[in-house]
Amino acid sequence: MTVATPYQRPFGELLRQWREHRRMSQLDLSNRAEISTRHISFLETGRSTPSRDMVLHLSEHLDLPLRERNHLLLAAGYAPVYGESPLASPQMAAVYDAIRRLLSAHDPYPAVVVDRLWNLVDANDGIGLLAEGIDPDLLGNVLRGSLHPEGLAPHIVNLGEWRAHLLGRLRRQITLTTDPQLAELYAELREYPCDQPEPEVELPGPGDILVPLRVRRAGRELSFFSIVATFGTPLDITVSELAIESFYPADAATAAFLRDTSS
Fold it and tell me: What InterPro entries does the record point to (predicted)?
């Protein structure tokens, strides 16, 4: 997968890259942002210099992640406006508290918090069921821990199906962000072995409504589906890039097992 690197480029070139990446013509962007195609052309060729407000206006209508909006501002000669606060910092106390409440309330079902690169930020006690026996060096990244042959992969009953699902999510994330680090991670994960077919398109079988994670743990097969939650109105890069993935029992036997082990 080829990803253009946005750094160290003039504003006009970067603007054109994002417009084309979003499969928009100058007319499309003109209509959406309510500015003339002539002005967009001048901005892309460097004949006009954008104001700070214009950079933010175009970033909004190109649906850029906050991190990339800062890059576009820098390319235009302006200071970034979106901060990137450590989760442990005082101003993030409410966010951290909300995360901890969600994780704790979800026990005994597994739940994890990841950043934009799928690095593990936090988890609840329930994740221990899935993480047991995995090489500790792999646990720092949820995708590596899931798909590496020394990670959870040997215990996943439907590895081909689940691997295709995870790689598909990662491809869509790369398409949205053009993040070169995600592209490197994707290339690495694609090299991991898999002895099962990987469907190119997820099609439901009889009665299927979602793709489950079917995993052998504690001497039995357990089945989960997941819900991914993000913060709805982020103004900080860290907050905007956090995702909480909560796993729920996909069948009655898994639900009963988790209830029994937690009592």
Answer: Cro/C1-type_HTH, Lambda_DNA-bd_dom_sf, MLTR_LBD
The mean pLDDT value for 233-257 works out to: 96
Contact 249, 255 (CB under 8 A): yes
Which residues on neighbouring strands pair with residue 119, listed in sequence order? 141
Alpha helices for 122-224 (secondary structure H): 128-131, 142-147, 159-177, 180-190
Give the Cα separation of 155 and 150 in Å (integer).
10
> Right CATH number for 11-76 from 1.10.10.10, 3.40.140.10, 3.40.50.410, 1.10.260.40?
1.10.260.40
Tell me if residue 124 falls in helix, strand or coil.
Answer: coil
* Inter-residue contact 3 to 171 (CB < 8 Å): no
Query: What is the tens place of the pLDDT at every residue in 34-53?
Result: 999 999 999 999 999 999 99
On the CB side of 23, how many CA atoms lie within 13 Å of its CA? Answer: 2
Predicted pLDDT of residue 218: 83
pLDDT tens per residue across span 13-35: 999 999 999 999 999 999 999 99
**What CA–CA distance (Å, rounded) separates 59 from 80?**
13
